[in-house]
Amino acid sequence: MKYTNLGRTGLRVSRLGLGCMSYGTPKWRPWVLDEEAAQPFFRRAVELGINFFDTADMYSQGVSEEVTGRALRRYARMDEVVVATKVYFPTGDGQNMRGLSRKHIVQGCEASLKRLGVEAIDLYQIHRMDPNTPLEETLAALDQLVSQGKVRYLGASSAYAWQFARALGVADLRGWTRFVSMQGHYNLVYREEEREMLPLCEAEGIGVIPWSPLARGLLAGSRKSLKDRDTTVRAKSDTLSPTLYDQPGDWDVVEANRSVAEKRNVPPAQTALAWLLSRPAVTAPIIGATKLEHLEDAVRAVDLKLTAEEVKALEAPYQPHAVRGL
Description:
Layout: E1 3-5, E2 12-14, E3 17-19, H1 35-47, E4 52-54, H2 63-75, E5 82-87, H3 102-116, E6 121-126, H4 135-147, E7 151-157, H5 161-174, E8 179-183, H6 197-204, E9 207-208, H7 233-237, H8 241-244, H9 248-264, H10 268-277, E10 286-287, H11 292-301, H12 308-315
Parallel strand pairs: 3-4, 3-10, 4-5, 5-6, 6-7, 7-8, 8-9
Antiparallel strand pairs: 1-2
Helix pairs in contact: 1-2, 2-3, 3-4, 9-10, 9-12, 10-11
């Protein structure tokens, strides 16, 4: 495994992060693995050198955090791993069980600490921007958590570049802790982050940790078409994928990736991840895995170097998209 700094910080993270949305309870989503089935993935991830684990309070309604915390305490050195979680989406039916108000952020952090079984969260991320809460209230609450030692670093996920730039500017102006990472929607099929967000992150020293690096499995090579919903359990129940990838040109990208992978004699997931890892500002894609071979394929991508010709072939079919994933 290779390691790098998260943005401009001194925090060292593996070039791949394990996304823990897949581990919790199938009562939340039918493709989610329960705690017993999830154990081999955490054990193998640690064996492979992954030290970066990403979850959220809304995944399996908190059960993902519980499973993640117990597994890491069992298999990893807690003073070495980087544990990331998120706050924003509803965690209950009440009016104050969602969003980025001071109340929900503070209560959400306290609940996540208990579920994870840690004294401090390494990377605490806002899962989305909250249009119903003043930005200053959100940033002040996050800074308070850092000052109290409950959170070590702050991150954001899926925003417009102007929103993120404003958040960085307000934090700097007020002397508050600024965000060090952006977890955005970025992969070979969806590259709109290249227009504004990635250049902003590169200029500001922000680490980029893309979600859905394999386009909800499209770039893994298992689907037969954009409309194929029968290949995997997740595809059958995934209501988000059709809203993210529905342009005819998207499948041309999938086919180009498959072609490059076949010539390299590697799984398509490896070429897709190798491309992503070569992009400016990208620190560590967040990968999901419900089969051990998928986890091991992803790790092999860290050492796969693409030629200029291969990169050109992978990028050539891309067509501009409307903004998706915010």
